[in-house]
Amino acid sequence: MLIVAGHLLTDPADRDALVAEGTRAVALARSAPGCLDFALTADTLDRARVNVFERWASEEELLAFRGSGPDGDTAARILGADVRRYAISSVGDA
């Protein structure tokens, strides 16, 4: 299992629009084979921050969905990012 988690930074005036436009990507990801969870959310404290959380059954399924990443217009709106991939070897109840 893989978890992709972190955040993107954008212009605070553009953050909510960026999250709203991400709805299509979230819907596509959640219907993709191997996607166990996918979310892009506005941070509750930082107006420039978009939180990213993804959970995938395998790296192959993640890479099949990911393709080439965001289009040029979306990528230009991302001013910074700290998003990491975590390989999970076991899972238990919280």
UniProtKB/TrEMBL annotation:
One of its GO terms (molecular function) is monooxygenase activity. The keyword Iron does not apply. Gene3D superfamilies: 3.30.70.100. Residues 2-92 form the ABM domain. Keywords: Monooxygenase, Oxidoreductase. This is Antibiotic biosynthesis monooxygenase family protein. It comes from Pseudonocardia alni subsp. carboxydivorans.
